[in-house]
Structures are given as structure tokens and as C-alpha cells.
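From the methods appendix. Each design record in this collection lists the discretized structure first, followed by the designed amino acid sequence. Records were kept in a plain field format so they could be parsed without special tools. The example shown here is representative of the layout used throughout.

RECORD:
C-ALPHA CELLS (207 positions):
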């Protein structure tokens, strides 16, 4: 994944655009792997039980799947996090109100796509879950790119707030090496977070 940010703009295509291709199963698997756990945890935070949260999470994906063919995503109207958050929030609300509105289905989600872009509003719980999820996913994705010692230097000094001089003693490395190792991981982590939050991420267009 380390070179996903490279290449000229003409070789890139957003994941949302890729979702519109029926033959691009990899895009859907990537989208599900990245964001289904996030939607599920948000549903649980909103008070849904596990089974209900799974149902709503699947409905969110179904709404996206049905609507994506005719939807044109415009990043100028709103951020990806707000767009997905609006769909998720409204689906949770529909589920919670379902018993009071018998016979009312969840719709095809297209209205939520538009509303999510134009409102600019996002639930605070969703924002917190999104940020935590993206950070955790980014950490996991970049960890494999570094050797154990480099990652350890980052882990103890940045994630666990150990002083660089103490880390240098513990890891038997020069202090300058500790700073350099931490900087390398932080720069890569920053890029990965941007990759995951920049309007559904950017992938190389298949050649």
C-alpha cells in the first residue's frame, strides 16, 4: 500500500468511482474492509444491539450499492466522512423509528448521498468514531512497511510518550536515530491517514 499515493493525477481514480464498475470486485471488498467495521461500531454507539447493528451496517452498504450507479460524487460539496456519516446516521434513525412507521422502508439511499454532501453537518459521535477508526486502520496498514526497531522507536516515543533519550537507552540506539525513525513513521502515517480520508481514498487505475 505504500505506493498508493504515488503517480501522476491522470493515473488515479477514486474508490467511489471504482464502486460503479460491476466487474470491480476488489473495490467493493476494499470499501467493505475499510468502512464496514466503522459503521458497525457507530451503530453500537448509537445504542443498537449487535444483531441490529449488523443489519443496519449491511443496509448502509446496500443503499450505497443501489445508489452508486447514478450518483456522481462531488468533493467540492462535502467531505467523504460527512457523506458516509450522513448515510449511516439516517439509516440508524430509520431503524430506531421503524416500529412507529410501519411499512416504511429505508429507501435507496440516493437522497442521503445528496444530503450528506450539501448539509455540511455531521454527528459528533460519528466524527469521533471515524477519526479513531481511520487512525487505527492507518497504523495497521503502515506497520508492515517498517522493521521492528524502527516501529518500536515510534511506538514507545509517540504512542506511549517515552522520552527519546530513554527510548535510545532501552533500544540501544543513538538518540538521533530514534528521532529519525519516529519522523519516518509519522510522515508515512500522515500520508496514509490522508489517503483514507481524502474522499474515499485514491487508488491506482488498473493498467
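DESIGN:
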Amino acid at each position: 500500500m505504500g505506493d498508493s499515493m504515488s503517480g501522476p493525477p491522470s493515473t488515479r481514480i477514486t474508490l467511489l468511482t471504482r464502486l460503479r464498475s460491476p466487474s470491480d470486485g476488489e473495490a467493493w471488498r476494499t470499501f467493505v474492509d475499510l468502512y464496514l467495521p466503522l459503521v458497525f461500531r457507530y451503530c453500537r454507539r448509537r445504542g443498537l444491539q449487535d444483531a441490529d447493528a449488523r443489519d443496519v451496517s449491511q443496509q448502509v452498504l446496500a443503499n450505497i450499492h443501489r445508489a452508486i450507479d447514478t450518483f456522481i460524487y462531488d468533493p467540492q460539496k462535502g467531505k467523504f466522512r460527512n457523506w458516509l456519516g450522513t448515510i449511516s446516521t439516517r439509516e440508524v434513525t430509520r431503524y430506531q423509528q421503524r416500529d412507529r412507521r410501519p411499512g416504511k422502508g429505508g429507501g435507496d439511499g440516493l437522497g442521503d448521498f445528496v444530503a450528506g454532501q450539501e448539509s455540511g453537518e455531521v454527528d459528533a459521535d460519528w466524527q469521533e468514531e471515524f477519526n479513531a477508526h481511520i487512525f487505527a486502520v492507518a497504523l495497521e496498514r503502515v506497520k508492515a512497511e517498517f522493521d521492528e526497531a524502527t516501529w518500536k522507536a515510534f511506538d514507545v516515543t509517540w504512542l506511549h510518550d517515552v522520552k527519546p533519550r530513554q527510548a535510545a537507552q532501552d533500544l540501544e540506539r543513538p538518540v538521533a536515530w530514534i528521532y529519525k525513525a519516529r519522523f519516518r513513521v509519522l510522515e508515512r502515517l500522515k500520508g496514509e491517514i490522508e489517503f483514507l480520508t481524502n474522499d474515499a481514498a485514491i487508488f491506482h487505475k488498473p493498467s
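APPENDIX NOTE: The chain has two domains: 9-138, 145-191.
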